[in-house]
Design goal:
- The complex is a heterodimer of chains A (about 120) and B (about 110).
- In chain A, about 0% of the residues lie in helices and about 50% in strands.
- With about 120 residues, chain A is mainly beta.
- In chain A, the strands form two sheets. In chain A, strands 2, 4, 5, 6, 9, 10 and 11 form a seven-stranded mixed sheet that branches.
- Chain A is globular, with a radius of gyration of 14 Å.
- The termini of chain A are far apart.
- Helices cover about 0% and strands about 55% of the residues of chain B.
- Chain B has no helices and eleven strands.
- In chain B, strands 2, 4, 5, 9, 10 and 11 form a six-stranded mixed sheet that branches.
- The termini of chain B are far apart.
- Classes of the chains: A mainly beta (about 120), B mainly beta (about 110).
- Chains A and B meet through strand 4, strand 5 and strand 9 of A and strand 5 and strand 10 of B.
Chain lengths: ~120, ~110
């Protein structure tokens, strides 16, 4: 069954702790993205990666880090430097590089992170 | 960078009536404009998209129009049904040049009144 999987669905952490959110896809997509969703603010881009071993900051990268060691995986670490980490996090993936036809971005089910 | 504004933030329409959601973008280089629907507790899913070389695209009850000069695009849903109730997001991107990333609007919560 092809798709993009995020885990876990719910995550609780104490303030000051780093936490890593998992995102795996088996769609053979080159590009992967991390978005943060807050009420009334839409989807804001945290980091994105167009190819393995390369990634770029999005609009709200401060306090987050990522890695892209494998094409299938794009984990997001929420560090203690992120001032307001409680949010809903969505991972997405899209077309192979250079393919102009199929541009749809597929989203995972999301991880709701609560920091107490 | 790109900035996308979306209006209205909430919209209620009677079942069977039409709904229109509008978005404006800032970057004239943007050439790809998708619309995503997010039902309660679910992931966003693409419902329709349009490229800058086309002015309008239709898919059954859903249509999107694009005005490149004014830098705005709109989603039109006709003959609305209860299952159309959801949050809708517009997005813009400069696609095809190796730096593809979607910038989203803030969303519109559409409620269909039976």
């Amino acid at each position: 069954d092809g798709g993009i999987t995020q885990s876990p669905k719910y995550l609780f952490r104490k303030e000051g702790q780093n936490v890593t959110l998992s995102c795996e896809q088996n769609l053979n997509h080159d590009a992967m993205y991390w978005y943060r969703q807050d009420p009334g603010q839409g989807l804001r881009l945290i980091y994105y990666s167009q190819i393995v071993n390369d990634f770029q900051k999005g609009d709200i990268a401060e306090g987050y880090s990522v890695s892209r060691e494998k094409k299938e995986s794009f984990p997001l670490t929420v560090t203690s430097a992120q001032k307001n980490p409680t949010a809903f996090y969505l991972c997405a993936s899209s077309m192979p590089l250079g393919q102009a036809v199929n541009t749809e971005a597929f989203f995972g089910q999301g991880t709701r992170l609560t920091v107490v | 960078g790109e900035n996308v504004e979306q209006h209205p933030s909430t919209l209620s329409v009677q079942e069977g009536d039409s709904a229109v959601i509008k978005c404006t973008y800032s970057d004239s280089a943007s050439n790809y404009f998708p619309w995503y629907k997010q039902e309660l507790g679910k992931r966003p899913q693409l419902i329709i998209d349009i490229r800058s070389n086309v002015g309008e695209k239709k898919d059954q009850r859903i249509a999107v129009t694009l005005n490149k000069t004014a830098k705005h695009f709109s989603l039109h849903i006709t003959e609305t049904q209860p299952e159309d109730s959801a949050v809708y997001f517009c997005a813009a991107s400069e696609w095809g040049f190796g730096n593809e990333k979607l910038t989203f609007g803030t969303g519109t919560r559409l409620t269909i009144i039976p």
